[in-house]
Protein 1
Amino acid sequence: MRRIVTALAAIAIIASSAVSLGCAPVDRLRYPLRYEQIVRIHAKNYDLDPALLAAVIYTESRFNARAESSAGAIGLMQLLPETARGIAVRTGGDGFAVKDLYVPEINVRYGAWYLRNMLDRYSDERTALAAYHAGPGNVDRWRDQGVEIQFPETRDYVDDVEKAKRIYADRYAKELGLG
């Protein structure tokens, strides 16, 4: 029993060191990548960095296509049904149904479109990410007041996406078509 405890302690120390050093295998376990083809296609279609798109998906849903938030956001990119309905109309879709948001291809297409629009609107990635998370109305109000992001959870979200983006760019360059 003592040997098992010692072995487990050693494994924990090694794993902790690997995490703190940013080792690629550990990063790939902690930051999985799924739906690579969908991410690449919609990143290209909407002129987005594929690592950014993957990072938003990871931060929003951990690549869980069935994810639902307490606020009613659905799917990989955690879109609100009313936002998605508006995107569907603006992009020529008809017959939108909420269940469509559970379909990875549709969810990522709508989310990529929305992210591209936030980037175009604000011309700054951090501000666009804040708008994606907290809504453009909040971001516009903060900008009018000359203040930074006012919601701590939105500041954390932006930081988390930026960190994940660096990891996806480094650890998944080949899968995302970056190199």
Protein 2
Amino acid sequence: MFGWLFRSRSVLDVTGLFLDLVAAARNPVAYREHGVADSFEGRFERLALVTTLVLRRLSALPAPAEAVGQEVVDQLFRHLDDGFRRSGVGDLSVGKKVKALAQGFYGRAGAYTAAIESGDEAQLRAALARNLYGSERMPEDVPAGLLAEIVDMIATLDSKDLAGLLAGDALAGGRT
């Protein structure tokens, strides 16, 4: 009678996709050639960008892709929470830091998605200059190579179905 209370929710394993996303975010080319700051902030910004591209693709796929997207975001913030704790940030501060990062992430995701969907390169350059480069670059100074990498990642992601994304090699073409 109460069996439904004890059934586990069927959530697909997103580990492969998450590890692929993290590897793409850590691509050394982004830091060496595209000038993304190799700091906590720069790595977070890069992670937010790549995660947004993955979430954009998942939002275009049928169910259960939306649940997969939520699990990717949940895993991302569990990973950040764990990183803060391991680095010695006090328990009382971790929640505040993660909450601030989450708010920033959703703002960036909205800006990147709107820019990509608009097809307006100037809008994307402005979002990248403001977020990925922390307003330390003018939009016209965003490297063409970074824009090409984003276009390549979008094309690679758009060529995958949900199973292809979950396999963990969806962004392999974007890594060097």
